């Protein structure tokens, strides 16, 4: 096995067994703080000397969660609640829940009462980012998160540590962007499944460790000759594209992923934290203001469709798969505009329902075949 | 509600002899008519007209003398009159929206599409919800409103004036929220003046604020009078007066309506009468939005068992008290239980259950409203234990008639009646 294969395999293993990663850090005497989607302030956890770990659901039968959530709540939250209630996350010192959509507002409360063994730290991001006052407000939210982190874990952050954390996170953003760009020339190695594992594994590693592994992957890819991919190339947009079965069906149909606008993947890495402009907390608040093209963040002008058209042009993608997370209303409001913008640009778009619990993919397979025909 | 028809009436089956309409309802009809007429006339004069979220600080538009209409209220009216279907079909069909979305939003986006000349659905009200030139947005009710208004703004190419009230995970509104919201209010007033050509008159604002405070008091008082046994009103009737608070909170016409309403209720109390048509056997609270398409069925079923709904979450929703702009910021952050944590929601409901002597709670699992539904189960459990009263929940929708089963509602109410009866008996034996 080459180093490249080994690194990829390691990241796939992390995605297949996140609990092992949690144990790994706990065994090192580290404290781990769970981070719900979307945009949790991981940096505050990291700068306090702890490990932030992403919580994006997973496949599990919903039994206990049914006492908290109706059937039409987002599948990621259903699974997070189920795992929380049945003890899968035991060992975590706390969880951070950004109350960014209506379901997540409720999740702060469901978790608070349902999983009292893992304290809940809420954060409500400002949505009116044109208001200059939103920066001070967000700084205050960060400070509350820090106070709660300290109270719960006894770990306190200092300014130098936050500065270093911001550097590490910006470096990680950069390496992920580079990976996404470089992988387009190596679609023989970076299949949809592999690409996803490299992206998702970031949630289960301390960020500088993940940067180091992805850096090695990028360097190894660069040493290989560019591969001319014979199939079609697509962009994924939405919240996430899981489980892996979906990605394998892309591969079966000679489709490669050459870029994405998934909340679970590249959306996180588009905006760096500014290196100047104040203390660490202020700069993190400014990073929030720099984020763009996300259904969860109020923005006028419905820019996402245009952004995807540009991404297709930059990457040579011939189509876009819109991965509609089941019951995700913020995404559902964007959907007609994204589809219309792509249609107008002459880019085929396939909207598919995403649910981690899915066991049957026949409909997806059929629709994907038709989509391939559309791309010519 | 419509100028001519109330929700309860519109949802009613075959016509039957009715008691005369109370004066307050006639006044309310006139006020609603005036709201739409004035918006139309303003539009004809070339003035700018707005659409607003229902818990936006209405006092701002009122101070500036702007004509503003309310999509949520309008959608509820359309749903109550059973006219929602073509709009829902249009929204989920040609407009390409998911069936999962809030039915108020779906109705309104389709209506807006007609006004925009992009859809051909016939407007049952002749288009009285005139095309807006600007939008007034707060997210204290939910985040879907933010997305819905984002889309309206894009669809009609008009500006949004937004106050982000932020979710309150704590039991109080943090001072940092007050500062953020206050800054947005100041900016919004400035921007709205610039856009509409109006100017801010502090004296006028103080007057509007006083009127609004008075109306909030009168609204709360009318709700509070239902604590008498038996209740002088059939609780569902209060739903009809919501437009006075949603759309006309800062107007003296609302003061007159609510004073009249209070007087009518007091008269019932003095005379020992009630508008609840049968003997009041059970008193319950209603959690969640009204199920507008089936209000009549809800009422009929409950009446069968003598269940009067004497307390709802609407009672406090517009009980917004403040004395200045800082207070306004705090009050609007804390107005809707949807924007507050479960503890606040439970505390408010517990207070209502006790105050109104409720023997049970009916939870409307409103398919349109994730922010209500996704924490309802935990709230039910805690509240039921704290208050010692049973609850029943049913599946419904505030505007989508497809999400309701008459049989389920009836069965759930029967179940609730059984438990409430047992409790009553046990109490009687004590």
Polypeptide structure, described:
The complex is a heterodimer of chains A (about 375) and B (about 425). Chain A is about 50% helix and about 10% strand. Chain A is α/β, with parallel strands linked by helices and about 375 residues long. In chain A, the strands form two sheets. Chain A has a four-stranded parallel beta sheet, with helices on both faces. Chain A has a four-stranded parallel beta sheet with strand order 6-5-7-8, sandwiched between helices. In chain A, helix 1 packs across helix 8 and helix 7 packs parallel to helix 9. Chain A starts with a helix and ends with a helix. The mean pLDDT of chain A is about 95. Chain B is an alpha/beta fold. Chain B has two domains: about 180 residues, Rossmann fold; about 220 residues, Rossmann fold (3-Layer(aba) Sandwich). Helices cover about 50% and strands about 10% of the residues of chain B. Chain B is built from 18 helices and eight strands. In chain B, strands 2-1-3-4 form a four-stranded parallel beta sheet, with helices on both faces. In chain B, strands 6-5-7-8 form a four-stranded parallel beta sheet, sandwiched between helices. In chain B, strand 1, helix 3 and strand 2 form a beta-alpha-beta unit. Chain B is globular. Chain B starts with 6 loop residues before the first helix and ends with a helix. The N terminus of chain B is likely disordered. Classes of the chains: A alpha/beta (about 375), B alpha/beta (about 425). At the A-B interface, helix 5, helix 6 and helix 13 of A face helix 7, strand 4, helix 8, helix 16 and helix 17 of B.
């Amino acid at each position: 096995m080459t180093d490249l294969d080994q690194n990829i395999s390691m990241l796939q293993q992390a995605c297949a067994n996140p609990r092992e990663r949690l144990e790994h850090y706990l065994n090192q005497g580290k404290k781990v703080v769970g981070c719900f989607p979307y945009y949790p302030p991981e940096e505050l956890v990291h700068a306090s000397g702890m490990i932030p770990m992403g919580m994006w659901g997973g496949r599990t039968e919903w039994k206990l969660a049914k006492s908290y959530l109706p059937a039409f709540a987002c599948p990621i939250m259903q699974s997070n609640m189920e795992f929380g209630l049945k003890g899968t996350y035991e060992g975590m010192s706390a969880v951070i829940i950004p109350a960014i959509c209506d379901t997540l507002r409720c999740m702060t409360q469901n978790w608070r009462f349902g999983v009292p063994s893992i304290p809940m730290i809420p954060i409500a991001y400002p949505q009116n980012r044109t208001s200059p006052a939103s920066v001070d407000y967000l700084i205050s939210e960060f400070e509350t998160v820090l106070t709660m982190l300290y109270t719960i874990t006894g770990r306190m952050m200092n300014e130098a540590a936050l500065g270093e954390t911001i550097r590490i996170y910006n470096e990680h953003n950069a390496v992920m962007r580079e990976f996404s760009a470089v992988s387009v020339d190596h679609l023989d190695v970076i299949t949809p499944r592999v690409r996803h594992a490299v992206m998702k594994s970031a949630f289960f590693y301390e960020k500088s460790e993940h940067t180091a592994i992805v850096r090695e992957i990028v360097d190894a890819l660069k040493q290989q000759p560019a591969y001319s991919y014979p199939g079609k190339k697509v962009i994924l947009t939405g919240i996430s594209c899981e489980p892996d079965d979906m990605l394998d069906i892309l591969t079966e149909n000679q489709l490669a992923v050459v870029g994405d606008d998934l909340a679970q993947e590249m959306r996180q890495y588009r905006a760096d934290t500014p290196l100047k402009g104040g203390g660490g907390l202020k700069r993190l608040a400014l990073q929030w203001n720099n984020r763009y093209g996300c259904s969860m963040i109020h923005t006028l002008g419905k820019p996402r469709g245009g952004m995807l058209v540009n991404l297709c042009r930059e990457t040579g993608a011939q189509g876009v798969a819109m991965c509609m997370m089941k019951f995700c209303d913020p995404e559902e409001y964007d959907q007609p505009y994204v589809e219309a913008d792509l249609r107008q640009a002459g880019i085929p778009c396939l909207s598919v329902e995403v649910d981690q619990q899915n066991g049957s993919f026949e409909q997806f397979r059929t629709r994907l075949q038709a989509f391939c025909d559309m791309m010519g | 509600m419509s100028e001519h028809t109330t929700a309860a009436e519109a949802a009613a089956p075959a016509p039957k002899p009715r008691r005369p309409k109370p004066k307050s309802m006639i006044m309310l009809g006139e006020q609603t008519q005036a709201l739409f007429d004035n918006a139309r006339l303003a539009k004809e004069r070339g003035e700018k007209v707005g659409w607003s979220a229902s818990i936006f600080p209405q006092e701002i538009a009122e101070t500036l003398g702007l004509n503003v209409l309310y999509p949520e209220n309008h959608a509820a009216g359309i749903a109550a009159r059973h006219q929602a279907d073509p709009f829902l079909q249009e929204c989920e069909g040609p407009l390409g929206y998911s069936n999962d979305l809030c039915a108020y939003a779906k109705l309104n986006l389709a209506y807006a599409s007609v006004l925009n000349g992009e859809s051909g659905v016939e407007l049952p009200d002749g288009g009285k919800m005139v095309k807006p030139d600007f939008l007034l947005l707060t997210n204290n009710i939910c985040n879907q409103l933010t997305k819905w208004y984002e889309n309206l703004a894009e669809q009609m190419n008009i500006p949004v004036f937004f106050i982000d009230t932020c979710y309150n995970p704590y039991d109080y509104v943090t001072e940092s929220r007050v500062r953020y919201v206050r800054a947005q209010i100041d900016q919004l007033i400035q921007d709205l003046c610039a856009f509409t050509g109006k100017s801010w008159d502090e004296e006028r604002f103080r007057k509007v604020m006083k009127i609004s405070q008075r109306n909030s008091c009168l609204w709360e008082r009318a709700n509070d009078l239902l604590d008498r046994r038996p209740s002088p009103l059939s609780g569902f009737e209060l739903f009809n007066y919501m437009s006075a608070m949603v759309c006309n909170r800062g107007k003296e016409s609302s003061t007159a309506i609510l004073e009249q309403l209070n007087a009518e209720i007091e008269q019932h109390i003095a005379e020992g009468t009630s508008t609840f048509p049968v003997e009041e056997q059970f008193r319950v609270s209603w959690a969640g939005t009204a199920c507008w398409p089936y209000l009549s069925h809800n009422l009929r079923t409950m009446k069968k068992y003598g269940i009067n709904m004497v307390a709802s979450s609407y009672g406090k929703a517009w009980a917004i008290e403040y004395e200045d702009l800082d207070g306004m910021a705090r009050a609007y952050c804390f107005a809707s239980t949807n924007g507050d944590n479960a503890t606040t929601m439970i505390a408010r409901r517990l207070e209502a259950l006790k105050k109104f002597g409720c023997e049970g709670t009916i939870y409307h699992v409103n398919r349109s409203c994730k922010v209500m539904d996704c924490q309802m189960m935990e709230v039910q459990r805690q509240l039921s234990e704290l208050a010692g009263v049973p609850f029943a929940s049913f599946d419904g929708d505030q505007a989508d008639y497809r999400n309701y089963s008459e049989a389920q509602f009836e069965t759930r109410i029967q179940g609730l009646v059984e438990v409430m009866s047992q409790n009553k008996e046990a109490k009687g034996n004590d």
